[in-house]
Amino acid sequence: MARRKEIDGSAGVPTFYGKELRWKREAAGLTLEQLTKGSFYGLSHLSEIERGQRRMPQDLAEHVDRVLKTDGFFARCCEDVRKAKTRGHADYYADVVELEERARDVEEWMPDLLPGPLQLEPYIRAVVHATHPTEPEEEVSTKVSARRERAWLFEDAKSPETWVVMSELVLLRPVLDPDGMAEQLAHVVEVAQRRRFIPQILPWNVAGHPFTMGTTRLLTFSDAPPLMYTEGMYSGQLTDDPSCIRKYAKAYDRLRAAALPPDVSLKAIEKAAEDYRNGKHSRGLEQGPLAQK
């Protein structure tokens, strides 16, 4: 029999909450399956909550309180867990942070910036200062930490398989000084070479193409229907409508077809990093690295 992994309740609010849930369940002499009976959730869902890997939905917390007779404890505390798991992220992104941990595949379109998990601290700070110019340093640092914690999505061997199409403008836009941009793009190349995600670059001068809009992400799961997430500057929305998602998925296929092949795209990112490093990246779009291809 496999040895049960102990939960370190000191690691943070989610694990403290999960450890307390396990203790109360076992004290009541119930299995995971028995505790979830009568709810809309499976035992694996509750198991992940106990390990601090997933937040508890309000309706499940209320169900647990009724079964364990815990006087509303878990319902009262589940909001604290949600805040702890998503601190440093926008409220509208909270569900996505949890969902991406469970995703099997992720397909993403980035028209303006590098994906968050690929951003290094200087890049993150520049983006935060641009979108929230009056943000206190404490809040900026929290956002930096939260975004860097998501680096595993592109680096961990157990992360979802991710395909990212980026506009060439992401390479051309100098978010940082030349040395900073060179370091940032070199990091993207290094991560891509580990083959945890596949990058494609869409040349800036491609005539009409799908997704002439903000960031878009398609998440597929092994045990649930796919979801589409779209994001604006200060808002984001999850869509689960099957017919709508099918349209997005077909549009994403057309977008990938219009972009450069992955190997050529990776060389383009390497070339952009080299140009920044050598001070050659001050030219206009008409002289962009991919315009002549």
From TrEMBL:
Recorded hits in Gene3D superfamilies, A to Z, give:
lambda repressor-like DNA-binding domains
All copies of domain HTH cro/C1-type, residue ranges? 20-74
Pfam families per the record? DUF5753, HTH_31
Q: Which InterPro entries match?
A: Cro/C1-type_HTH (IPR001387), DUF5753 (IPR043917), Lambda_DNA-bd_dom_sf (IPR010982)
Superkingdom of source: Bacteria
Cite a single GO MF annotation.
Answer: DNA binding
Recorded hits in CDD domains, A to Z, give: HTH_XRE
Q: What is this protein called?
A: Transcriptional regulator
